[in-house]
Amino acid sequence: MKKKISMHKRMLFTFIGILFFSFLLTGVLFDLTINRFNLFEHQYRLENEQPSDDGVSSRRVSGNTFISVGIMFAVATVATYFLSNSITNPIKKLGKFAADIGSGDFKPNDYEFQEIELHELNSVLNNTAKQLAEYDGQQKTFFQNASHELRTPLMSIKCYAEGISTGIMKPAQAAETILQETDRLTELVADLLYISRIDNIAANFSKSKTDILDILRQSSARQEAMANKREIGFVFDFDEDAIYLNCSQELISRAVDNLISNAIRYAKTTITLSCNKKGNYIFIVVADDGAGIEETVLPHVFERFYKGSGGNTGIGLSIVKSIVEQHGGTIAVENNGGAVFTIVMPRAEENR
Question: Quick check: pTM over 0.70?
Answer without folding.
Answer: no
